[in-house]
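Archive entry: two folds, one per protein. Generate the first.
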Amino acid sequence: MSCLVMGIVNVTPDSFSDGGRHLDPEAAVAHGLRLRAQGADLVDVGGESTRPGSVRVPVEIEQERVVPVVYALSDAGAVVSIDTMNAGTAAAAIAAGARIVNDVSGGLADPDLLAVVAESRADVVLGHWRGHSREMYAEAHYRDVTREVVAELRERLEAAAAAGIAPSRVVLDPGIGFAKRGAQNWELLRGLPQLVGTGARVLVGTSRKRFLADALGGEVSEGRRDLATSVTSVLAAQAGAWAVRVHDVVATRDALRISDAWQNGTA
């Protein structure tokens, strides 16, 4: 299957969708292993919520939450990504076996993060970002959201290269929902081929986000959000995304498999 699936493990009490479900390290590891068994190619472990309005977590607490989970999952053979904006947590997670650093801030929140990645063998996901969760919607102003997001991510690609990270090690993420309101997310998704056109791998994460529920009429069940996530994930894959980041691995994996069968004429 051409598009990879990244499963989400939130080791947090306050993530917008599943906060508190996997705060215990053993529960988080079990969930990560379950996602892998369900077909996740990558497991993304995060210890700090980036939902709208969330408060930053001290780096020591973040590391207490994620490092044991990263170590256990890596030891079990999972390809682990660490979802963090902190250089210290990135370094600790890489030492514990993480092979990807997923920074939603694109290296802007902590100026040392790109140097940490450069000194390692890990890849890095650079997200489009215009500020922390409590302030990001104040920056949701665009004349042309796709053009501006692509331009700003090209700058992050250049910053990574200046830090010593080869372009082949970089993944770009348009940051759906980060400093973007409903219609802006849809416009950006329609323009995804422009980001793919940079030549970098692209990660897309729409999973259970508010703009999907709004498109379905407001407050909807988790299952309906997962269905909408699967549809957008298939469309992202068709637009050239390297991977999609999701909570429900089974639904997304099934949707991608059916899409592949449709396009290739065989299952």
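Generate the second and append.
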Amino acid sequence: MANYNSLDKSIAKALLSIKAVFLRPEEPFIWASGIKSPIYCDNRLTLSDVKVRREVEAGLAEIVKTHYPECEALMGTSTAGIAHAALTAEILGLPMGYVRSGAKDHGRGNQIEGRLEKGQKVVVIEDLISTGGSVIEVVNVLRDAGAEVLGIASIFTYGMQKGIDRLKEANVKNVSLSNLDALLEVAVETGYISETDKERIKKFRDNPADESWINA
């Protein structure tokens, strides 16, 4: 029987078990950007499974305590990160809020919901990081509002080079509970995919624009 002692593989196993992640190299998914992908991830499903939800939120809380001990508030990304930010904030006894994808067109026109003080040290809670564009927008909104963004705590990252480069350029740290490499190891160990499929998916991750992995 496979040994899943490390947290990243434990979370990966959990995501696969509740079908929050699908690996389908033979029948690629089409992302909103038009990119063909052998993987689809919907971490919202973790909210519907009590056991997995507890493991995820405990893991996010541990990331904040270990990597961002000065954190004063959590800010979720809209919409997937909101519930995770709320649950993790409850564990840690911290304030939370969230950042809208755009300012409201009514009321006070807020883009940041919840109280945010200038100079407050915050951690952004995100469910999934691929190319990093959306979460960096959230970081920039918070910085423009005067927050000190310590970094990001996320559930899963693909580890795409574009995402890594963007985070570095934005000078923002990300710590994820799990990642594509750990998930592929678990998927091979459990017989979900073959070793050949693992290499095809990694080829996609390394260069999504190169579709040669489809017929590899």
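Annotation attached to the second fold: Confidence is low (pLDDT under 50) at residues 1-5. The radius of gyration is 18 Å.
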